[in-house]
Specification:
single chain, 57 residues, three-stranded antiparallel β-sheet, two-stranded antiparallel sheet, 5 strands, 16% helix
Amino acid sequence: MSEEKAVQLVEVKLAGEHTHKGVAYKAGDKIKVTPRQKAFLEETKKVDGATHTVKEA
């Protein structure tokens, strides 16, 4: 038997336009991403403000 690991997601507020999972978002929209995706968005200056951690089963 294998244990499924819950995916840890973080909610980020976009600072600019961004496409995530094939959906176009505009500045100010909030999306849920993995910590690795969040780091990428921070590097590319696509996120704005504070973030919240969300657990998803």
